[in-house]
Amino acid sequence: MWFGAMMLWMVAFWVGVVVLGVWLASLLFPRVPTTSQPAPREILDARYARGELTQAQYQEMFAEFSRDDRREGRRMHGLAIVGGALILLALLSMGAFGGWGMHGPSRMRHMGWGPNVSTAPAQAPIAGAKGMAVTLVDFGFRPAEIRVRAGQSVNLELANRGGVVHDLTIPALGFQAAVQPGRQWTAGLRAPAAGTYEYYCSVPGHREAGMGGRLVVTP
């Protein structure tokens, strides 16, 4: 549920940005006729000057052109209002439900991590242990399988290349390390007895989106 809501917020935000961009572009770069033909108002003025139109006809047609201009202006202002409303709605939703996971532990707890789940890396690096690189992306691990020997100590070099916070959680081992987007963290892990242990990202919605893997411990 949280993953779906997060995606809706992101879509609303970027749609609003695009709409506002279109409105701003229309102000900075107004449409210029691509041909050398005179504008409709210039034609109207010329016809009136030649006596082809009465004053009443001229005023009526001039008023129609003015109404068209006002309608175009209202349409562009409507775009600006819609774009601003979408951005505001996305920001208010993020504030009400804890954001997208990019604003520290307090916001992440509101997204369902709960008071008993640490949102900060708890496993310190192990001196002299072998390093193993693990990349966290939206939404997966690279590699999706980590292989170590029983009793071996390793340092998991976690790099978050995604756009939101991710963690690597191994519930059977009580292991969890969270990494902010664009950051890296090295967490020490002492391999248990031989077996296969599931790991995943515990941020709500991420595991359901396929962000999981397995730790294979060989004898």
Quick rundown:
This protein is an alpha/beta fold and 219 residues long. The chain has helices at 2-28, 40-49, 55-97, 105-113, and strands spanning 130-137, 140-142, 145-149, 153-160, 166-170, 175-179, 184-190, 195-200, 212-218.
Describe this structure in words.
By secondary structure, the protein is an alpha/beta fold. The chain has two domains: 2-97; 113-218, Immunoglobulin-like, CATH 2.60.40.420. It contains four helices and nine strands; from the N terminus they run ααααβββββββββ. The chain has helices at 2-28, 40-49, 55-97, 105-113; strands spanning 130-137, 140-142, 145-149, 153-160, 166-170, 175-179, 184-190, 195-200, 212-218. The strands form three sheets. It has a four-stranded mixed β-sheet, with no helix packed on it. A three-stranded mixed β-sheet has the order 3-9-8, with no helix packed on it. The longest helix is centred in the middle third of the chain and has 43 residues, at 55-97. 22% of the residues are buried.
